[in-house]
Amino acid sequence: MKNQTTASPVRTTSNLVNGLDVDLIRSAINGITTDPAQAATNWRVSTRWMGGARSDTRVTSFGIGGQNVSKDFTLEVDEPLELAGTNRYANPQEYLLTALNACMVVGYVAGCALEGIEVEDLRIEAEGDIDLRSFLGLDASIKPGYDEIRYTVYLKAQATPAQLEKVHDVVCRTSPNRFTIAQPVSLETRLVLG
Known about the structure:
Blueprint: E1 5-6, E2 16-17, E3 20-21, H1 22-34, E4 41-43, E5 46-51, E6 54-64, E7 67-77, H2 92-114, E8 119-128, H3 132-135, E9 149-157, H4 161-174, H5 176-182
């Protein structure tokens, strides 16, 4: 990844569908088709404990096509009162489900935009169950996470059912967060003491 930092591109197009710049999307597709190295991305965050069950996650940049792009966001995380938190912010599980839904929302909106379909309404509801006995060290035979996540997509658009099923199929096959949650992913860890 090059060490060059850039700002996000300024949008000046009038070819907007669903609030997305279709020309920019097509330009990115064409650029990546010509130079696959432009498809390389790198996402990173830094999370710091803030006391109790609280943590703040800083997002300061990401990488795309060999460029480093500056960002400036803080995601505040907490736990509900019942899990020793203050209930001031969403908890990690709610952020996980949010990340799944938000990634798919982008897929539906962009997929529809590329097909010239204007989305009237889009909502995804997701849920899952976790048995806390493993997390609390009470029963090692129980998985510490989800066995399944259930979600329902509510999509209203001026399109045929077949057109919307096509977009749905593409999202199910190509959403990065859906893929990551649905497939085993390698995790590398390092512990730095001191």
